[in-house]
User: What shape does this take?
Amino acid sequence: MCGDGANDVGALKAAHAGISLSTADASIASPFTSRTPTIECVPTIIREGRAALVTSFGVVKYMVAYSLTQFLTVIMLYTIGNNLTDYEFLFIDLGLITLLVLLFSRTVAYPYLDPKPPRTKLISWRPLFSIIGHLSICAAFQAFTFEFVKKQPWYEPFEFNTDKIYISYINTAVFLQSTFQYIWESIVFSRGAPYRRSIFSNWLFLLSIVLTFGFSLVLLFVPVKSIYNFFELRFIPDIKFKLIILAMAILNFILMFMFEEYVIENDHISFKRAPLSSTSRNERSQTGTHHLHIENILRLTPDWPPILATPSEEEQQPLPEHVLVNENKKKKNQTTTTECF
Assistant: This one.
């Protein structure tokens, strides 16, 4: 709703998006005020609103997916009496997630207005299936790493202790695999066109991805003693195993990207019911209530009631078929009544 006077205050307040075209009385009730008294700001508000909606959905999905991904890591390590160390938790929550999620929303709106609006339901099959699918992919790669490290000749089983010392090969391998997954989730859930610009336009977010990915590579390939002691990691001597971890991380990203792009965002995949044909609508209205039946008749007869200029034209205008049927029924009823008398 756009308005510029005090008489528009009620409509501006009740509208989904009220735009005041003046800085007078109308600007008090409307959430948006245009500096120019024209409606050229309407497409901008729609674009920004759509970008904000898509960003909000992406942030919610990312926070849910990250917490459940970390939960999967902890559950796997619990099976052998192990767990992530305090500084591993700190690095994930503060060094990765907080940095990425703060810069996630800095991507600006797409410069062109798409004719199709974005989805507005967070609790629907697409967001839920997206989170479940990505968690399944991450769980599969973590489980593979969990079992694959046990088959290495240099592997030493973790010995449970009450001192909360979790240094082990299996902790290090699963932790390094999961750090890449948190980065991939931020990229996959950061949607671009047609409602937001690409992540390459958000250079701060792109820089944070590069830095976190680079630091994860350093943890994997460069065993700096001070860093390993800080995170309580154990040095992995096999470079081939490290390359396999990196290859699985890249494959993990490819699968997550393809799943989100070609399954979740595919408009051809839908569980909505097909629209009813005109015959089906007609049958449904006849079996429903009386007002639905009348509404269906009026919809099928768009030129009724006729709007005529003179009485002579009204006399020449033929009545619709359903009206003629009703008139014939009335005449038959009158004739029957007359014969009875």
Q: What stands out?
A: The two ends are 63 Å apart (CA to CA).
